[in-house]
Amino acid sequence: MEDAIREKITTHLAPRTLQIHNDSHLHAHHSAMRGVTSRETHFRVVISSDAFKGKMQPARHRLVYGLLKDEMAKEGGIHALQLRTMTLEEEDKRREKEEEAEERARTCKD
């Protein structure tokens, strides 16, 4: 399942960043997962792509859901999909803020 997610997102969105976290093991005990033999049902995905430019978060998520509709519809397929979608500019700004925060933290320790 993870390979299918990676292939479809890479092919259709040409992401600069693509992180796929398989969190299925954290949810295996849930009642909805009883009897499900798949070990790939819950994913957290971070994507940065120019394909998201000019789109609000709901439209970005619909785009990804559309790419993965078959994987979400099949028995034992994706049960939960958490998305973080960013344009390249948004990702750059986020990284800058993180670097500034790290620098401030280092400066405070000295």
TrEMBL record:
Ranges for region Disordered: 88-110
GO BP of this protein: [4Fe-4S] cluster assembly
Similarity field: Belongs to the BolA/IbaG family.
Pfam family, one: BolA
Database matches in Gene3D superfamilies: BolA-like
Comp. bias (Basic and acidic residues): 91-110
Listed name of the protein: Bola-like protein
Record's GO cellular component terms: mitochondrial matrix
Lineage, uppermost ranks: Eukaryota, Fungi, Dikarya, Ascomycota, Pezizomycotina
